[in-house]
Model the fold of this input.
Amino acid sequence: MSRNHQYKATIKWTGNLGTGTSDYKAYSRSHLIQVDGKPPIESSSDPAFRGDPNRYNPEEMLLAALSSCHMLWYLHFCAEAGIIVTSYVDYSEGTMVEDQTGSGKFTEVILKPSISLANMQMMDQANALHVKANQFCFIANSCNFPVKHQAIYSIG
Done:
């Protein structure tokens, strides 16, 4: 039996500098991402597209969503398998290709978690769980590009 889950978010443009979108350079790309009951996220476009480098951009948030979703599934499967993870930090990277029209798309994401295990003898089993986590990750399942994994393990 399938279940539907609904999500809501409000995106509020805050970049009207006085003349709206009267010109491509006349407005800021600043906006707020708001979800009821949570603090807003100050966002913008990538600096390559006239965005504020001090704010999160959609491409970074896509990368963060993939990394976060994968980590949560991975930790879940490790717990079920009796693999004790003591720390997990992901240094994910994504590649977006922009074509001559200005359109673009992600072509690949590589998740690069640095994971500490209580027992290094479980490393092979722990590493195999990345495939399972990727198969269950809601965000990865919604992408049309490969999500790869290059985990590094240590004892911890």
